[in-house]
UniProtKB/TrEMBL annotation:
Entry binding sites for substrate: 104
Source organism, top-level taxon: Bacteria
Keywords, sorted A to Z: NADP, Oxidoreductase
Pfam families on file: Aldo_ket_red (PF00248)
Enzyme class: oxidoreductase
PANTHER family documented for this protein: 2,5-DIKETO-D-GLUCONIC ACID REDUCTASE, NADP-DEPENDENT OXIDOREDUCTASE DOMAIN-CONTAINING PROTEIN
Gene expressing this chain: yvgN_2
InterPro entries found in the cross-reference section: AKR (IPR020471), Aldo/ket_reductase_CS (IPR018170), NAD(P)_OxRdtase_dom_sf (IPR036812), NADP_OxRdtase_dom (IPR023210)
Record's protein name: Glyoxal reductase
Species this chain originates from: Haploplasma axanthum
NADP keyword on record: yes
């Protein structure tokens, strides 16, 4: 578990549900993930699958206190609509509170980010959300936001993998007490290609593991929460096994050296997803 600065705890590994659009398949993989040992599920309004994620968790019979649910607000809106959309997400997920709520993408106008964040603060103070944070915020965007709000973000979910180690951002967030979660840790499959595969596979062989598990273990070893996505039973267990892999400092350094600053997802400074929708 990783502990936020308010004392709330989150499992180190979760299941990402980005692009899980087939309801039946998503339902089945959530149930299988719970059976395998997953206790954190990451969804978003943008994914369009909150309802099926909530139903699967509910139908599994797992106690609410034993599962951690993250969702993200799509776009930016008036305070009233923002609150309504978040309450609607809670209804879809069939929960009385959210473990974690994130701004999915920053707006290019900091005043709009602040307006959205103030609704997050209200929901947090009301106990409807246990952890409030952001996603895809750069250091500059975080600095702009923090200077105008009461409760600094507790987390920042960003693209992070061997080709994009995010070391400067991670150092900044650590100094500010902001926990980092990595999405896309398997690089959309590019970890199976050069110049990444050989180095990762060499480490994987030493640990009797796979390159995917090693990439996840690399993040975990640095205090980063990882939410790999998969739709296969085998990979569920394989990814979860990363929590038991202990990488040496030399191995971590070797993977850090693979960083080229390569993004495989949208650039936060030029994203089209953080629009203000009236």
């Amino acid at each position: 578990m990783i502990e936020y600065r308010n004392g709330y705890k989150m499992p180190k590994i979760g299941l990402g549900t980005f692009r899980m659009t087939d309801a039946e398949q998503t339902y089945d993989i959530i149930l299988k993930a719970i059976e395998t040992g997953y206790r954190h599920f990451d969804t978003a309004q943008m994914y369009g699958n909150e309802e099926v994620v909530g139903k699967a968790i509910k139908d599994s019979g797992i106690k609410r206190k034993d599962v951690f649910i993250t969702t993200k607000l799509q776009g930016h809106h008036s305070p009233l609509i923002t609150r309504e959309l978040i309450l609607e997400s809670m209804k879809k997920l069939q929960v009385e509170y959210l473990d974690q709520l994130l701004i999915h993408w920053p707006n290019h106008d900091n005043e709009i980010n602040v307006q959205t964040w103030k609704v997050f603060e209200e929901l947090y103070n009301e106990g409807l959300v246990k952890v409030i944070g952001v996603s895809n915020f750069t250091r500059y965007q975080l600095e702009m936001l923090i200077k105008d709000i009461s409760i600094p973000p507790m987390s920042n979910q960003v693209e992070m993998h061997p080709a994009l180690s995010q070391e400067p951002l991670r150092a900044y967030c650590e100094d500010k007490g902001i926990k980092i979660t990595s999405y896309g840790p398997l690089m959309r499959g590019l970890i199976l290609e050069e110049p990444y595969y050989s180095g990762l596979n060499e480490i994987a062989i030493k640990h009797n593991s796979t390159v995917g598990a090693i990439a996840i273990a690399w993040g975990l070893s640095q205090g980063v929460m990882m939410i790999p996505k998969t739709s296969t039973d085998k990979r569920l267990a394989e990814n979860l096994s990363a929590k038991d892999i202990k990488l040496s400092n030399d191995e971590i350094t070797k993977i850090n050296a693979m960083n080229t600053g390569r993004r495989l997802y949208s650039d936060p400074s030029n994203n089209i997803y953080g629009k203000y929708i009236k």
